[in-house]
Amino acid sequence: MTLTRAQEVAALQQDLARAGYIAEPGLAAALLLMQDLERPLLLEGDAGVGKTEVAKVLAAVRRTRLIRLQCYEGLDAHAAMYEWNYQRQLLAIKLLEHDERGVAQKEQDIFSERYLLKRPLLEAITCAQPPVLLIDEIDRADEAFEAYLLELLSDFQLSIPELGTVPAVSRPLVVITSNGTRELSDALRRRCLYQYIDYPDYDKELAIVRAKAPGAPAALAAQIVAFVQGVRRMELQKRPGIAETLDWTAALLRLGISTIDKDGAERIMDTLSALIKTRDDRAAFPREIVARLAAAC
Amino acid sequence: MLTIDAPLNLRAADRLAGFPGFLRANGFGVGGGDAVAVLQTAQRVGMLDSAILRWSLQALLCGRGDEWQRFDELFDAWFLPANRWQRPQRRDGDDRTLRGEWSEGPAGREEAEDDDALRPRRSASRQEVLSSADFRSLTEREHTLDIEALMRRFARQLKHIRLRREARAHRGSRIDLPTTIRRSIPSGGTPFHVARKENRQVRPRLVLLIDVSRSMALYSFFYLRLARALSAELSDIHSFIFHTRVTAVSQALHDPDPWRAQEQMHLLAQGWGGGTRIGDSLAQFSREHAARIVHSRTAIVVMSDGYDTGDPQRLSDALAQLRRRARRIVWLNPLCNRPDYAPVCQGMQAALPHIDLLAPGADLASIQAVLPQLIDALR
Asked: If both were cysteines, with which of B17, B133, B172, B281 could B242 make a disulfide (CB 3.0 to 4.6 Å apart)?
């Protein structure tokens, strides 16, 4: 019996939840579509809303490898694609010194696949089983790299000058994340499916805390989430993400704080370093404000 | 392979295929090829469950955050029965009548030449343009060439900064192993010719904050044209306008089509020419955009006369905060080259301790005059 699409979406949502990720049905639908249309998925949203986690959990659900390419300023195609194993090559050159063969043949030997080190992009297209390829924070890499990546994502083949063209053995599931520090090209956006991930609402965040921190009592978890949601509504330089919520939960548990209320404001102050990460933001949380937020929980 | 048979009937397929065009008319960056992808998607996910179809098409057709936010409304408008919506819905094969009625975002390029009578909304919006602010001067031919030439020079000199820094750092300090080894093969593995890697290119990022309040009315278009010309030359530049709040205009300025750039600016400029609250605007900038955009190699250029109706303390605080993030803050003040000018107004007094350079800039000649100082400050 074939499942309807709605059932498929619900099933994937359950799988994701079992793997520890609470996803909206919209995201689950996009993940399914990504496989149908063989397009990459571009995730945008503030830092700390769980973009990278999507790729990790997708790999877990599909029972496949996660190959991660972390982008940074000055990342060039070589570092992302392949490198030669120089040490072994040098050794081989020395060993071949007294060889009778011609230079061309020696060169062919030295630039053979034995001396090739696969970097994420090459690795991803030569896996027997399609892996999940995570291209993290693409906005940190420069435009030239983006254009290069675009070419890879349309053809799924790489060319290595010394070896020739390497076609894809399998098509990886590509997840691209961006924090929006740089405007991405329209060409890249058009090639990808798109998903904007916002800070979670109360219910979703509570479900996440319950799943990720099973040690926290239900009442405390609800209070923690209410407090964090209150913090996010304030005008801050850096709003706390989900990771911060979980860190803070761990900190509260470690200190044996079992309930958040006005009287415990002093002890809550001690743990705020897990939640508030800049000096200016810290100054926005004097005792009275913490007490008021705590009282509202 | 695309076949439009059951379960997609022809009518539904027709409706679906028209959806990308409708989004395009509403300012989405979708292309003609997307109709095929829409039909493929609909075949995969089925038409029965409208929520699933909605999510799937949203992932497929959106490309950026603002499109993501507006999608739901447009999806409803296109697919839900007409009686749920107040606005008239006609579809007689010609999309243009429809676009005119629905168009809410910046309109597409080809519409510029269309007959106005078909599109009541657009003609109304044109009157608004005339009554509020005349953006046509944004792309006027006059002076444009001069501005472009000067900004090209400025951009070249910015690149020059980079080259000098590299020259000082002994161009290419790291060894390029692959090339070195390849070159060493003929000599039996002895690297006679050591190849070096090019040093990483670093160039300051520019953030332009342009005051468009009433007191700046004489100068703000000039500054916008500067920003537009500069955006065409540099890739790493972000432009904002502010009066009582701050609005990002990089995308509008970057549009190669001058007509569309005007239209987008018009949409962005509500509140144009009103009062000024520089402190609030900068605080908003530092809250909403600075974390993303301003890094340790960023130069912030504020273009304002410093006449502020807000609290000077707030301006001072906001600038101090930005100063900690950014590499340089430069203030271009159009009043500065009057002979009797002294920065005595409250706004400038509050700002002075936090800025690296206060420079005049009322017209092209004065900008040209301060260019060396500007380059020096950005170095």
From this structure: B281
Residue predicted with more confidence, A51 or A279: A51
Q: What pLDDT score does B142 carry? A: 60
Top mean pLDDT of A241-245, B106-110, B347-351 is at: A241-245
Average pLDDT over residues B161-179: 61
d(CA B271, CA B243): 7
Tokens 């300051």, residue?
Answer: B204
Question: Tokens standing for B94?
Answer: 């010609």
CATH of the domain at B260: 3.40.50.410
The confidence score (pLDDT) of residue B94 equals 38
Can you give the residue ranges of every domain in chain A? 5-86+94-196, 202-296
Based on the domain organization, do B105 and B238 belong to the same domain?
Answer: no
Q: For residue B378, is pLDDT > 60?
A: yes
Of residues B65, B178, B250, nearest to A84 (C-beta): B178
Confidence of residue B143 (pLDDT cuts 50, 70, 90): low
User: CB of A107 within 8 Å of any CB in chain B?
Assistant: yes
Q: Is B60 found in the same domain as B112?
A: yes
Out of B68, B177, B188, name the one closest to residue A86 (CB): B177
CB A222 within 8 A of CB A206: yes
Q: The domain containing residue B127 runs over which residues?
A: 10-132
pLDDT (tens digit, 9 = 90+) per residue, B320-363? 888 888 888 989 888 877 777 777 788 888 888 888 888 887 77
Cα separation of B347 and B83, whole Å?
54
Residue B53, both tokens = 């179809």
Q: Cβ contact (<8 Å) for B293 and A195?
A: no
Superfamily (CATH H level) for A5-86+94-196 = P-loop containing nucleotide triphosphate hydrolases (3.40.50.300)
Express each pLDDT in B268-282 by its tens digit. Answer: 766 666 678 888 899
Determine how many CB atoms are found less than 10 A away from the CB of residue B329.
23
Task: Enumerate residues 37 to 56 of chain A having a beta carbon within 8 A of any beta carbon in chain B.
Answer: 37, 41, 44
Residue B267 Cα distances to A186, A193, A235, B263, B285, angstroms: 21, 27, 26, 6, 19
- A140 Cβ partners below 8 Å, 6+ apart? A71, A72, A73, A75, A181, A182
Burial class (CB in 10 A: 0-12, 13-18, 19+), B174: exposed
- What pLDDT, on a 0 to 100 scale, did the predictor assign at position A252? 92
- Torsions phi, psi of A193, nearest 5? -75, 155
pTM of the predicted model, to two decimals?
0.70
Those residues with Cβ within 8 angstroms of residue A88's Cβ, 6 or more apart along the chain or in another chain: A114, A115
- Å between B341 CA and nearest CA of chain A: 35
Chain A residues with CB under 8 Å of B257 CB are none
CA dist., res. B21 & res. B39, Å (int): 13
Tell me: pLDDT of A277 over 70. Answer: yes
Average pLDDT score over chain A: 88
Count of residues in chain B: 379
Report the C-alpha gap between B275 and B308 in whole angstroms. Answer: 8
| Contact at CB, B64 and A44, closer than 8 angstroms | yes
Residue B13 CB coordination number (10 Å): 19
Q: Single out the residue of B304, B360, B367, B372 nearest to residue B143, CA to CA.
A: B367
